[in-house]
Write a structure and sequence with these properties.
The chain is an alpha+beta fold. The chain has one domain. The chain is built from 2 helices and 7 strands; from the N terminus they run ββββαββαβ. The protein has a 5-stranded antiparallel β-sheet with strand order 2-1-7-5-6. The mean pLDDT is 93.
């Protein structure tokens, strides 16, 4: 099974790779399907503006960090993990 990278598409037009503790996250096809399901079930995910926090529900992130600027995720795409890293996408 080939692993995928996730690129979050942000409401301000930027794109952000899915990372954890500074490392690129690799996703299986099943995990990508689950992410799609979660987006449909919970609504938009979000990051804090400094990308230090993430939640699958933007409203829960707002409750946890009421003074932080919140950037919603409006979609995502997946790409093969062995493609070169796109320097125009936030790591």
């Amino acid at each position: 099974m080939k692993h995928q990278r996730i690129v979050h598409i942000l409401e301000d037009g930027r794109r952000k790779y899915s990372t954890h503790n500074g490392e690129m996250e690799l996703w299986t096809e099943h995990e990508v399907e689950n992410l799609n399901h979660n987006n449909k079930q919970y609504g938009r995910a979000a990051f804090t503006a400094d990308f230090s926090r993430y939640d699958v529900e933007a409203k829960k992130l707002r409750l946890r960090y009421p003074t932080a600027k919140i950037i919603k995720v409006i979609g995502f795409k997946s790409e093969d993990h062995d493609l070169p890293i796109n320097q125009q996408i936030i790591f």
